[in-house]
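sorry for the late reply, my laptop died twice this morning and i had to redo everyting from scratch. anyway the thing you sent over, i finally got around to it. pasting the sequence first so we're on the same page, its 167 residues, then the predicted structure underneath. double check i copied it right bc i was rushing
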Amino acid sequence: MATRRIAHEAVRLEVSARASFADFRARYEEAVPRVDLEGLGRLIADGAGWPEVEAAAQAGAPHGFTRYWETDAAALMALAGPVRPCVTYLMGNHTIAQRMFAHDPGVMLYAPLRTTIHEDGDGAAWFTVDLPSSRFGSFARPAVTAVGRELDDKVAALLAHLGAPVA
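ok and here's the structure:
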């Protein structure tokens, strides 16, 4: 059996939220709603066609993304002592991921995107994500890399909508 080791560099994007942690988190969660897992389950059980999946994704992701998972990291870390707020999310769009998955299912290592909203030591809120192009580019497949760059633009558009434009 073969083993592949692929070294690659990720570029982490840290963007000032220009708002309080609580305010930015609330606006982010409104702009990036929870994925409708029950609805997806029904589509799978019914053997729906991909156009139905795409329509549901478009309706449920007003800014191109939904939240698949989240955890309040600070809640657990607070058991060790004082902490600053931090929430971690998995944010993505399965119809976009499918366009990469078709070329290499291994892309699911990075889809959906892992993001955080956290407060630094000065009380400033930040949004953090690895640039999708830096993650998906590591697969060395032009079609996958192109979607990674498209996701960079979608993340930037979301942040601009939230009042935290990428400089």
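The chain has a mean pLDDT of 97.
thats about all i looked at so far, will dig more tmrw
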